[in-house]
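Module 6 notes. Inverse folding takes a fixed backbone as the condition and produces residue identities as the prediction. Think of it as a translation problem where the source language is geometry and the target language is the twenty amino acids. Below is one complete input and output pair. Work through it position by position during the lab.
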């Protein structure tokens, strides 16, 4: 049974887990209540664990490595990512600073390597020029877009609890979110240029998947980019509750955009 279809969509949730965990480093740890890190780390650890369980279930199917390119190295990396994420999460209830710092770094580094490994397996089956560079960049950038949007939404809720919390952490996440969206727009533009020149033998892409690609770009990064501007204007008031609601829509839009991108990956083999 072909595992490529479910595997491409599982990657979206793996991206969210890796990107979200990394974005926990944006707010200054000692300026935030530890409860924010506990709740947010649990959310991203749970998403990563569920995605890893899904990968394991696919890998256990007969012929998984030959059919879908899913290898045991990739599985081990995702398991190790969940393990270090769990250690980091548990350390938040204690004051073992060295263990917490090392577990955090080990978790997001392992997650990054796992994403690059996943990208390499897709790139190996592609005839797209510079595939070994384009695929990892696309996967990692998508993870950061999802992570910053998710972290902004979770952090926005914390302002309902800590009324005296400075807006600086939320501004920092919004700034990172904006930069990631700009980078994603540039990457999609490069993808369009490559397709326009017939790169990788995908000359029929525009006739078959034009509207899927347009929908993907319109929802995210363009649509979520408009939401980022709205969040920026809202924080100037400032109104954190409204900003949190907009981050809700942003994470939904970013997720739908990445799911559409993974659909294009499944149908065409192109990282869009």
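Target side of the pair, the amino acids:
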């Amino acid at each position: 049974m072909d595992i490529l279809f479910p595997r491409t969509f599982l990657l979206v949730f793996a991206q969210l887990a890796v990107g979200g965990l990394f974005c926990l480093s944006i707010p200054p740890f000692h300026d935030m209540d530890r409860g924010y890190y506990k709740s947010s780390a649990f959310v991203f650890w749970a998403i990563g664990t569920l995605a890893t369980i899904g990968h394991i279930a696919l890998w256990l199917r007969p012929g998984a490595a030959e059919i879908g390119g899913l290898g045991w190295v990739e599985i081990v990396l995702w398991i190790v990512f969940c393990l270090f994420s769990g250690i980091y999460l548990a350390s938040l209830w204690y004051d073992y600073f060295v263990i917490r710092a090392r577990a955090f770094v080990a978790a997001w580094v392992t997650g990054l390597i796992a994403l690059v490994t996943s990208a390499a397996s897709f790139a190996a089956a592609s005839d797209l020029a510079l595939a070994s560079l384009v695929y990892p960049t696309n996967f990692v950038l998508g993870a950061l877009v999802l992570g910053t949007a998710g972290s902004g939404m979770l952090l926005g809720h914390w302002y309902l609890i800590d009324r005296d919390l400075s807006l600086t952490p939320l501004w920092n996440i919004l700034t990172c979110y904006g930069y990631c969206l700009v980078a994603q727009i540039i990457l999609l533009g490069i993808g369009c240029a490559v397709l326009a020149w017939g790169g990788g033998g995908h000359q029929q892409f525009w006739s078959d998947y034009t509207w899927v690609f347009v929908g993907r770009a319109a929802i995210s990064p363009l649509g979520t980019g408009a939401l980022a501007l709205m969040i920026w204007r809202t924080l100037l008031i400032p109104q954190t509750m409204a900003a949190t609601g907009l981050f809700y829509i942003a994470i939904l839009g970013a997720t739908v955009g990445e799911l559409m991108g993974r659909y294009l990956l499944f149908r065409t083999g192109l990282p869009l």
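Reference fact for the lab report: The chain is about 80% helix and 0% strand.
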